[in-house]
Amino acid sequence: MLSCRQATRLMSEAQDRKLGLAEKMSLELHLAMCKGCTNYRAQVSFLRDACRRYLADVRDGRE
Question: How many Å apart are CA 4 and CA 10, to the nearest integer?
Answer without folding.
Answer: 10
